[in-house]
Specification:
single chain, Neutral endopeptidase, domain 2, 4-stranded mixed β-sheet, 25 helices, binds zinc ion
């Protein structure tokens, strides 16, 4: 399945600083605040607002060796991790009267931090799974082996932008495109180890170099598990060839952005007819899937090709392929040799990270993944005061009113389309901070003894939880992110916008900052998520979350003209990444940025009016409220990525890089040009102004 949740940013692998809190006396890491001291006055704001607003932060905050991105998201993530770290140490040390939550997170933490056990016992613990692959003598046995792999590690039920990141294919629940309130089953393309199909198919020198290094990495992993070097080299080349075949049959990431291209509705008999050589009955039984009224197959061509691979690819190639995928998924919990081999390729080669995170931080991330709504309770208790939720609710209400007015004022929409847009906005629900009801982990056994055992049981628990959704009504109140996550998202099928507690920290949400700053910083984040419901993908879903066209032909045409302007504006060379950005890949995110800032600005105007103030009033720092609003906005994006990460992101990810999220957005705004007295012809005064909402 393709998970339709549109996030605020690329999910940064939460990296680490060296000076981490390990006891109560240690200092908490610093988060940033929006301030004029961040401004580099040597830069002309009308030429490069990103470097003007962020220059002094970028120049003085060097990226730590174990980060791939450094900026507000990373600094808050580090602060959040320090909070979680302390909660985990406390839970692990507590001897008497532990709550059920403290037992789970404390014991998980203890097992995860045991490096010596990982070095001496972990590969042995993985052996039953590896043996199941070794014992696969005929392709008729693929289904049960694959089901076992899919239920032993995370991901089979989590569709990504490019594919489901799991061996062969993904399977899990999804809201029905035609009736979002009911959950059905979905099969998705998968099978790749590299970040997307272009990594296999592009012909440039850098792509070839990455593939060569990938083969060396695969060989290294196989050798660490006991395969001889010549054999491992040969198998690694076969694995690359198999994955290249899979890449060729995958739908590309641009076509995949259009939900209509994914909505292939089939009976189970029709699914079986696509891939007759695969035993779907056995697979579905082994992953404990209930039967579904329909099965959505995102990419039928991929499943047709799968049949051919099963028939023609020798079974020993499949064994090598599956063995590698198991090792790759388990690597972070195995011995240091595996951890380092995986780091060298997946983090250093693909994202430019120079140094591995300290173990404590990797274990915080894993506890968050496996027990997120248990650990999240500790985060909320320590870091999310009820007043934050109240202030957010006020801002969300202000922004929604602003969008309502904007829809009403649009001169390019007919009344009937406007009425449907109003209905959709009214039906959108906001979730702030954390779930109303915490997930019950009581049936999940967590011990202080076996890290890999905990991980496999947690994956099986989550797999079962996901499968049980099939055939049931959609739960719109479920969260797709854990409370400490520094991100936000919109889900068009739920018709919800979601703001985890983790992002409601400075500089995004600052209790000490005035409204101009907060509407610029977190206000635009709220605006971004709200607009996702009305971007080029979101507009295809109605108030109910159904994939249903509520646009007149003329209004749709008008919308597309405006959308094309944005897509063309962002189709640009990104010199620092060495590749060209495709504005069709980032169109939804760029539309959300483009419109989010407008409705945040309108909401600020109303907020100030209530207080008898205006956007042009000056504060103690000599700046107008509007200038402070734009600085607040830019400070969300005062960060940067390593060049390797930029390349990978531009090729595979729907988000533009930080400086474009600032400069391209303000260049469309006369209000910005007025606020900073930009002359006509300045680089950030675009003659052709792109604007939808
Ligand atoms: Zn977004």
């Amino acid at each position: 399945m393709k998970t339709l949740a549109f996030c605020l940013l690329f999910a940064v692998s939460v990296a680490a600083a060296q000076s981490a809190a390990t006891d109560r006396s240690a200092q908490m890491p610093e988060v940033g605040h929006v301030s004029t001291t961040n401004v580099d006055k040597s830069v002309d704001p009308c030429s490069d607002f990103y470097h003007y607003a962020c220059g002094n932060i970028l120049n003085t905050h060097a990226m730590p060796a174990d980060e791939i991105y450094w900026g507000p998201f990373g600094r808050i993530a580090l602060w959040n991790d320090a909070v979680l770290h302390q909660a985990l140490i406390d839970a692990a040390a507590k001897r008497e009267g532990r709550t059920a939550v403290e037992q789970k997170i404390g014991d998980y933490w203890t097992a995860c931090m045991d490096q010596s056990a990982a070095n001496t016992q972990s590969l042995q613990q993985l052996q039953p799974l590896l043996s199941a692959v070794d014992q696969m003598k005929a392709m008729s046995q693929l289904a049960p082996v694959l089901a076992r792999i899919h239920t032993s590690f995370y991901a089979a039920w989590e569709g990504g932008d490019n594919q489901t990141n799991v061996a062969v294919f993904g399977y899990g629940p999804t809201p029905d495109f035609n009736n979002a309130r009911s959950v059905v089953a979905s099969f998705d393309q998968g099978g790749l180890s590299l970040p997307g199909r272009d990594f296999y198919l592009n012909d440039d020198a850098k792509s070839k170099e990455i593939r060569d290094k990938f083969v060396a990495y695969v060989s290294r992993m196989l050798q660490l598990s006991g395969t001889t070097a010549p054999q491992a080299d040969a198998e690694a080349r076969e694995i690359l060839a198999m994955e290249t075949n899979m890449a060729k049959s995958q739908m590309d990431v641009i076509k995949r952005r259009d939900p209509k291209n994914l909505n292939h509705r089939m009976s189970l008999a029709q699914v079986k007819a696509l891939t007759p050589s695969f035993n779907f009955d056995e697979y579905l039984k082994d992953v404990h899937s209930p039967s579904s009224s329909i099965y959505i197959v995102t990419t039928p061509e991929f499943f047709q090709a799968l049949d051919q691979w099963i028939r023609t690819e020798p079974v020993d190639h499949w064994r090598s392929y599956l063995r590698f995928h198991i090792l790759q998924k388990a690597a972070s919990s195995l011995s240091d040799d595996f951890v380092n081999a995986s780091f060298e390729f997946n983090d250093k080669q693909l994202f430019g990270q120079q140094q591995i995170q300290p173990r404590w931080r990797r274990c915080v991330a894993r506890t968050d993944r496996d027990l997120g709504e248990a650990l999240g309770q500790a985060y909320v208790a320590r870091a999310f005061p009820p007043a934050s939720k109240q202030r957010m609710l006020t801002m969300v209400a202000d922004l929604k009113s602003a969008l309502d007015r904007d829809i009403e004022a649009a001169d390019w929409m007919q009344p009937q389309t406007k009425a449907a847009a109003h209905r959709k906005l009214a039906a959108q629900i906001e979730k702030i901070g954390y779930p109303d009801h915490w997930r019950d982990y009581s049936s999940l056994n967590i011990t202080a003894e076996s890290n890999l055992g905990n991980i496999e049981r947690a994956a099986a628990f989550e797999s079962n939880r996901q499968m049980q959704k099939i055939g049931k009504p959609l739960d719109r109140m479920e969260w797709g992110m854990t409370p400490p996550t520094v991100n936000a998202y919109e889900n068009p099928q739920e018709n919800t916008i979601n703001f985890p507690a983790g992002i409601l920290q400075p500089p995004f949400f600052d209790a000490d900052a005035d409204d101009a700053i907060n509407y610029g910083a977190i206000g635009v984040v709220i605006g971004h998520e709200t607009i996702h419901g009305f971007d080029d993908q979101g507009r295809k879903f109605d108030a109910n979350g159904d994939l249903k066209d509520w646009w007149t032909d003329q209004d749709a045409k008008n919308y597309d003209e405006r959308g094309n302007c944005i897509a063309e504006e962002y189709t640009q060379l990104v010199p620092e990444a060495g590749v060209k950005q495709n504005g069709r890949l980032t169109q939804g995110e760029d539309t959300a940025d483009n419109g989010g800032i407008y409705i945040a600005m309108a909401a600020l105007r109303s907020d100030l009016m209530r207080q008898g103030k205006t956007l042009d009033d000056k504060g103690a720092d000599g700046l107008t409220n509007l200038q402070r609003f734009f600085l607040g906005y830019a400070n969300d994006w005062c960060g940067s990525f390593r060049p390797e990460a930029m390349r990978t992101i531009v090729l595979t990810n729907p988000h533009s890089l930080d400086q474009y999220r600032v400069n391209n957005v303000v260049a469309n705004m006369p209000e910005f040009q007025k606020a900073f007295s930009c002359r006509v012809g300045a680089p950030l005064v675009h003659a052709k102004r792109c604007h939808i909402w």
